[in-house]
Specification:
Layout: H1 5-11, E1 25-32, H2 39-45, E2 53-59, E3 69-74, H3 82-96, E4 101-105, H4 109-114, E5 117-119, H5 122-128, H6 147-160, E6 162-169, H7 171-187, E7 192-197, H8 215-236, E8 240-245, H9 252-261, E9 265-266, H10 269-274, H11 279-295, E10 301-306, H12 309-312, H13 314-329, H14 331-336, H15 342-349, H16 352-360, H17 363-371, H18 386-403, E11 413-418, H19 420-423, H20 429-447, E12 453-458, E13 468-473, E14 478-483, E15 486-491, H21 501-515, H22 531-534, H23 539-544
Parallel strand pairs: 3-4, 3-6, 6-7, 7-12, 8-10, 8-11, 9-10
Antiparallel strand pairs: 1-2, 2-13, 4-5, 12-13, 14-15
Helix pairs in contact: 3-5, 3-20, 8-9, 9-21, 11-18, 13-16, 15-16
Length: 549
């Protein structure tokens, strides 16, 4: 495989580790944990892995480890740094005992069930160090939820002598990891399960998981392109750019990109929900900002829109909830309905209030709400072109205002959706270091005989050698939520906190950014150079830790 000069130079980069992991480590246990909510239900479902203590690794005396065979799975959507998690896991296992082996299950969790795997040797690992993507073994979205799947996993683990499985994924994938860990303890089959926190959406975090890997790189990629568009807008001075960004369930990506680039308008879904805003409220807000700038002769600007915005609008959220439940209960019947009659079917089976809201939406949006479902049976909000919908509705409102003299400018738009562009980028130095440390920590958790834990690396606004390595029981992050019409245990998503440092800083600046042209142009990710340029964490992390940006 031919490599670019950057790939060649990047392959030589040695990720930085927390000081405690550079030598011999011992395990220090913290307090016992409980789930973030629904404690009784979670404890009942996970009697063997509930209430375990937090863990921290500290420097200690040398210890002899037996050789161990480990399997690794990449699960869900890609995120920058996944290859470094596997590299750190491999190096940690080999340091404990050079005879240890690492097997990669191919194509995600289905590789475990279908017994498709490859042994990951040093030659293979070295080809993928510090690279983006998940192509070393591939990923997939198969859910590990059935006993038959778990037992298939036992079969292949017994065949290969695997004593531990590391699942690298987001909240759903790590929920599956917790279910698997519980089952394997119940069956006493001697297979540990460890999770690693991945998602560019940034919604898998808590006190022990300060950030999910890939968020840093992806937001830097998006911010670079937003900055480029801002510069174009400021040069041409004739377009309003509506930019939709990844993040279905939370607006962390959009908020971070706003902090990095200072656009004119940024919509935060969590605020929309908290203020019970309607679609017209949002449109009016944007239109007023457009009119205010037009009064200054500025007929251009930037609007950032989170992918999941439509689901945060309370009335539409209520509609979507009923839609999900109704279709889950009537899926077989719905599937038999002709496509041109599905909309009528939906309207007839909704409450009067939600049917009215459904019929008030543009046809394209109502069709997507009714017809496009994800593997969980939920609306695929990423397919709803919210950025274009808002641009069209703002245009109509401005046209009305123009008739009354309330608006005197010109309004032309461009639309963008940045998603896949950030998922497989070469990881930033932060993500390269963080992911390597997560993988290395996972190997230490295996060496310590732990299961049902997620690898944790904290204190990440400090230099890497001051980072704190350890683990948190996955059950500590869980609550009960409705999925496909049934209550299920899942890791609680972390939403943007409106009383948190990142949002409060943004809120204090957005009125200035709306009327002025205070654009920031971040430029591309820098891999080589001064630490203050190359190694900086996200603005979100800095502000969450009370630091300046």
């Amino acid at each position: 495989m031919k490599k670019s000069p950057l790939q060649i130079a990047r392959a030589a980069y040695q990720p930085k580790l927390p000081a405690a992991l550079k030598g011999n480590v011992v395990l220090s246990e913290g307090a016992a944990t409980q789930s973030v909510a629904d404690q009784a239900d979670i404890k009942k479902l996970f009697p063997n892995t509930y209430g375990m203590p937090t863990i921290q690794f500290v420097a200690g005396e040398a210890k002899k480890y037996d050789a161990v065979n480990v399997g690794v799975i990449l699960s869900g959507g890609q995120a920058p740094g996944g290859h470094n998690v596997i590299s750190g896991l491999f190096d940690g296992l080999k340091k404990m005992n050079p005879n240890s082996k690492l097997y990669g299950f191919l194509g995600g969790p289905s590789g475990l069930v279908d017994h498709k795997y490859v042994e990951l040797t040093a030659d293979i690992i070295d080809e993928y160090r510090n690279t983006g993507g998940f192509d070393i073994i591939g990923s997939g979205r198969t859910k590990l939820e059935e006993v038959e799947q778990f037992d298939k996993g036992i079969e292949i683990c017994n065949k290969l002598g695997i004593k531990a499985i590391v699942i690298i994924g987001g909240d759903d994938s790590n929920t599956n990891a917790c279910v698997l860990a519980e089952y394997y303890l119940q069956k006493k089959c001697g297979i540990q399960v460890i999770g690693c926190p991945k998602t560019i959406d940034g919604d898998l975090k808590n006190e022990m998981i300060e950030t999910s890997f890939g968020f840093d790189t992806a937001t830097k990629v998006y911010a670079e392109v937003i900055g480029n568009i801002q510069r174009d807008a400021n040069s041409a001075k004739k377009y309003w750019h509506f930019i939709k960004l990844m993040g279905r369930s939370a607006s962390h990506v959009t908020l971070e990109c706003a902090l990095k680039t200072q656009p004119n308008i940024t919509l935060i879904g969590e605020e929309v929900e908290a203020k019970k805003q309607t679609l017209d409220d949002i449109v009016t807000y944007i239109a007023q900002a457009v009119a205010n700038r037009a009064a200054k002769g500025l007929n251009f600007g930037i609007v950032l829109v989170p992918e999941g915005l439509i689901e945060f609008i309370p009335a539409i959220k209520k509609l979507i909830s009923e839609l999900n439940d109704m279709l889950a209960a009537n899926q077989a019947e719905f599937d038999k309905v002709a496509d041109d009659q599905k909309i009528d079917y939906v309207v007839k089976h909704l409450s009067k209030e939600n049917a009215a809201i459904f019929e008030s939406l543009p046809v394209a949006v109502s069709r997507q709400l009714a017809l496009e479902r994800d593997p969980h049976g939920n609306v695929q909000v990423s397919l709803i072109e919210t950025e274009q919908l808002l641009a069209e509705m703002v245009g109509k409102k401005l046209a009305e205002w123009k008739k009354s003299g309330k608006y005197v400018g010109k309004f032309a738009t461009q639309h963008h959706f940045f998603g896949y562009e950030g998922r497989c980028a070469a990881p930033s130095n932060f993500d390269a270091d963080y992911c390597y440390s997560l993988g290395y920590t996972a190997s230490m958790l295996i060496g310590a005989g732990k299961t049902g834990y997620m690898s944790s690396v904290r204190n990440t606004t400090e230099p890497a050698d001051k980072w704190i390595s350890g683990g948190i029981p996955i059950t500590a992050m869980m609550n009960m939520e409705k999925r496909n019409g049934k209550m299920k245990p899942v890791i609680q998503k972390a939403l943007v906190k409106l009383d948190g440092g990142p949002f409060k800083y943004f809120a204090s600046k957005r009125d200035e950014w709306a009327i002025n042209t205070d654009f920031v142009y971040p430029g591309p990710i820098q891999y080589f150079g001064p630490s203050e340029v190359c190694d900086q964490p996200t603005h979100t992390l800095l502000l969450e830790h009370g630091k300046n940006i």
